[in-house]
Sequence to fold (192 residues):
Amino acid sequence: MTRKKAAFFDRDGVINVNHGYVHNIDDFEFMDGVIELMLYVQSLGYEVIVVTNQSGIARGMYTQDDFEQLNQWMCAQLLERGVIITDTYYCPHHPTAGNSCFTQECTCRKPNSGMLLRAAEDYGYDLSQSILIGDNQSDMQCAINAQLRAGYWLFDLAAQADNGTALAQLSSQAKNTQLFHINKLRECLHLI
Ligand SMILES: [Mg+2]
Ligand SMILES: [Zn+2]
Fold:
């Protein structure tokens, strides 16, 4: 029997347009192509898991409750379109920012792999068969740290110079994880 596999999705900048610390429904705008991509990975047998750094909580900009309410709404919207979010993991911490009980070092904030390891334990995923889609270097480092099969880094031409160099460096240190650059979420459809 093959073990279960997950497609980990970063949230801000991948599922929703990154307007900066989004915590209200009014500011939540789905990214172009993300629902199509989620449906596609589901059809390939991946379970969809959200993994998101939410340092806005450590910074005191919104609460865990605010986050969870928005997350529930998001999951309901996706479910209406046929996407099942199996679970959402979020890191409320930041090592230095803010002045709250969440201002601390942790093992869950990406690039740390804590959220992915927890999901693997909770649902029995084979991480070596799992993938991550993100828009930050820390997402790709996280994919490597968790020894996923692949990471898909979404960035546009404006960021190409800096991120292209970082991608080459990361790729050279990744033993088991293949990294890909995508300009649009739809490009992922041909690479997975
Ligand atoms: Mg992001
Ligand atoms: Zn954390």
Observations:
- The beta strands are 5-9, 46-53, 85-91, 131-134, 150-154, 178-182.
- Residues 64-80 form the longest helix (17 residues).
